[in-house]
Amino acid sequence: MKAYWVCIYEKIKNSEKLKEYAAKAKPAVEKFAGKFLVRGGKNRTTDGIKSPRTVVVEFPDYNSAMQCYDSKEYQEAHDILSGHVIRHHQIVEGD
Known about the structure:
alpha+beta, Alpha-Beta Plaits
């Protein structure tokens, strides 16, 4: 069964750091066969906190999604975001 990273940004304090993160995170995601389904774009918040950005990444299975997140490559990218964004990141299994 496939798995997904669902990342909802609440606040982006430094868009340059977000770009730096994205450039470094992409190869890590691809290494674990992740595929970006949603990266920003037009959106409308219908309930909850208004979000300036949403990202959804599809992985072949839950284990791959977890391994990617825990990988050294992704964690190095993730560290770039520290203090520059507020976001909710969840790994979820689905069809």
